Amino acid sequence: MPQKLQYSNLSYIIDTTTWHEIEKLKINEWKLDQSEIEINSYITNPTNLKNTKMFHLANMITISPNSFNTNYKNDYNKNLPLLVKFQNFNIEQDLINLNIKEYIEQQTTQFLSVDMLTEDNYKYLLHGVLFTYSDLKHHLFKFIMDFPVLTFESSYVYSEKYDSIEDIINISFDQFVNQNNINSLYPIVINKQDKSVKPLTREVVMQLNSNMVVCMYTLSPHNMLGLNWKNLINYMRIVNPNLINFNILAMCESWEKSLYFKCTCDPLTNGQLKTIKLSSLLKPTITTIDLSKSMNPHKIAESASKLNLNLMKWRMLPDLELDDLSNSKVLLLGSGTLGCNIARNLLMWGVTNITLVDRGTVSYSNPVRQSLFEFKDCFQKNNNESIHNLKCNVAVNALKRILPTANCVGVNLTIPMPGHRIDDQNMDQTVQDIKQLEQLILDHDVTYLLTDNRESRWLPTLLCSVHQKPVINVALGIESFVVMRHGLQGQGENRLGCYFCNDIVAPEDSISNRSIDQQCTITRPGLSPIASAIAVEILASIYNHPLKFLAPAYDENNTDAENEKCQTVVSVIPQQIRGEMRCYSNTIMNGCQFDKCVACSDIMKKCFEQDKYDFIIRCINEHGFIQKTCGLDNIGTCEMIEFDFDE
Ligand SMILES: [Zn+2]
What separation in Å is there between the alpha carbon of 487 and the centre of ligand 1? Predict the structure, then answer.
C-alpha cells in the first residue's frame, strides 16, 4: 500500500568555540566587511553512522571553527560538508530587522534561475543560512539559522518500499560507495540493467523511467527521508512537471538501513507551479549567546584591552602592524615618573612583556606624580617588610591590577655609574650587577633609559651598543624634554648617535654635593606624561617600519624621496624629538654617531670586549679614564647641556 512520503527535519549545533573564531575573524579580517560568504557545516557521513553508534547525529549539522577555515582538510569518510551562506552584520538592528521567512522566500527567483543539477550547483540544493551579529565589547553574539526548503501547494508523493535492493545492485554497500567514490550529498542515477552510474542532470530527469534509480545519501535517522531528499524530489518535479513515476535509493549506513522506494505522484499543474517557493524550515527567532559568562575575566580583559587597537585597523589604519609590537619584550631602566608612565602607555599599545628595574622605594612625595603608586605604598611597617615597597615591585603589582594577564617583572638592581666610586668590598656585587644588567638587556628587544640622572644612562648605553640592542632614551629638563632612539651598527655609515654622542666630556657624579632642588624633581608636572607618550608612540612607529630599529631618521631637510623611507602608517620616525613647554613646541632633530663617543664608539666596544668588567670598573673608578680611552683628553671641555631629572 503506497504511503505518503515523509521527511525528517534537519537541526544544527554551533560549537561554542565558533564564536571565538567569529570574534577573531571580525576583528582581524572582516572588519567592516559584512558581505555574505559561503562556509561549510559538517554532518556525519551516513556511511559512518554504524561506527559512531550515534544515530541522533544523522540529521544534525555542526558549525565549528573549521567551518571558517578555507584550508581545512575534511575527512570525507567521517563527515560530509553542507554549505551554509553566512553573513555577519555590523549593526545589531540589521539582524533584528531581518525577517528570515521573507528573506528565504525572496531567494526563490534566484534559486530557480540557475540549474541546480550541475556539479557547481548541487551544493545549493540544500544549504543553510546563518546571520550573526557580534558585540565584541561584551562577547555577546546573536544569530538566526535556518534552511530553505523547496515547496509548492498540495501535491504529495506516494512511496512503496521495494523488498530487495538486489535487482539494482549486486555488490556490498561499502564496495558501491568506494567504486563510485560517493563522498558528497550529490545525486546520481543508477541504470538497473547495465548497473552504470552517472550524475543526475536535468536531461536525465526528463528521461527518468522504471529502469533508473535516483540515488543519494539521506540525512536522516533510520526509515525516514532527509530534508536533502525533499528538496531534490521537489526540484525534479519542477524540472519535469510530468514526472509521475520514479525510483529512489536513499543511502544510509548499509543496504539494510537504506530506503529503496518506488514513488508515484500526479503531474504538477500550472496552478501548483505558480506556488513554488523556498520556505523557512525552522522559522527561528534571534538566539543570544553570552560568552562572557563562561570566559575567564582575565582573558576577557586581555582581549578587550586590544579591541580598541584592532578597531583602529578597520577604517583609519588598515595596514597597522600590531603583532610584533605586542610580542616585544621591553626593559624599563627606572620605575619613577617616566617608568610608570611609559609602562602604562605600553599597555595601551598592547605591549605586556615589561620588566621594570629600580632600586628605590616608594616615598611620600612619589604617588601624586608617579602614576602607578598610591599613598598606601609609602608605608614601611618595619625594615624587614620594606622590600615590598620597592618601586619596581609596587609598579608591577599595579600593572597586574590594571591587566592581570600582563607579563611584568620587577628587578631590584643598582646600575653602576661613572664617578660613583666602587669600594673593594662592593666590587663583587658590582660585577654581579653589571652582569645582571647585561643579561636583562640581552633578554629584551628594546631598553628604555628612564633613570633620574645622566651618569646612570652611560653603562646601559655602552652595553646596548656592544650587543647591538636598541635603546630609547627619555630625559626631562625643567620645562623641556628629549626622546631619542640610539643608533645601531646595522645602519652602516649613517649610524645615528646616542645620548652621549654630542658630549666631549665623560659623565660624572651629578648627584653628590648638590642641593635638593638641583638633584631632581624640578620639572613641570605635565612634561613626563607628554615625553612618555611620545617615547611609546615612537616605538609603535618603529615596529611599523620594515627595518624596525634600523630605520633611517626623518629629517625636514631631506628630500621627499629620502623621507619616504622613514615613513610608516603611524608616523615618520625621527631620531630625536625635543620638546619645550614655553611655546609648546616640538622639534625633530638628528645626530650622527661620534667616533669618539664615551658610550657607543667602536673604541669603547673594543675595550669592553677585551677587558670586560675590569674595563667598566676602571671607567667608573678612574677619573679621566673614559676621556683618555676615547681620545677626548686633548679636546678642551665645554659647557655640557644639563638636564634635571624627576626621580
Ligand atoms: Zn654615542
Answer: 8
